[in-house]
Amino acid sequence: MKGGDHSVFSDTIEITVNDSVWTDYAAGSYEGGDGSEDSPYLIASAEQLALLARETNEDHSQYTDVYFRLTEDIDLSGHSWEPIGNSAQSFLGGFDGNGHTISGLYIDAPDEDNQGLFGYLGDDETASAEVKNIGIVNSFIEGKNAVGSIAGISYGTISNIYADGFVTGSGMAGGIAGSNIGTVQNCYSECAVRAASQAVLWAAIQAQYKTATITVIYAQTPHRV
User: Fold this and answer.
1) Confidence of residue 48 (pLDDT cuts 50, 70, 90)
2) How far apart are the C-alpha atoms of 91 and 123, rounded to whole Å?
3) What integer pLDDT is reported at residue 211 of this predicted model?
4) How many Å apart are CA 176 and CA 178, to the nearest integer?
5) Domain ranges in the chain?
């Protein structure tokens, strides 16, 4: 079994996972909705969240300006997580956590960039991608460069988020986003963050910021560089 006790800092968390990934167990359909802003696709299980990851990573164009909403708390314990979106297939839709939490998010990818719940949020041509109203709890996320609880790299908008757990990268890492070129607002992080690049951890929310907009941020974290 992979996972378990990751004592990279003074505290520990327990996440039980095996060698499989959630996308191998993706559902065949969402709970409801048609993907419009008024009737978003509804996600009520880990399998349905994995469906979003799998289909985005296969062909992100089908979800451009498409909306999603959680209807239940999601427990991702049991399997490793493959981030939603990557550098070739970024997530270009809207994701509303609806006040719910995602727990047990586990990523062990020390050789892979852009790691988090979302790997690549938006792109440099559109800022319409959005993630809001969600909590990431009891997580362990390890990647190479651009590692964060919500997004490895974000060109979009991240708002009304809280996160706790462990985030570590050999490059840039942050409690909310590893690299943010978009907007982060009304976010709270208690993640323990470790990074080893020249980029200084910025309030443990993000490690790198370029043309980003940052408002109403609170971070309380034992971070190391």
Assistant:
1) very high
2) 8
3) 45
4) 7
5) 2-219
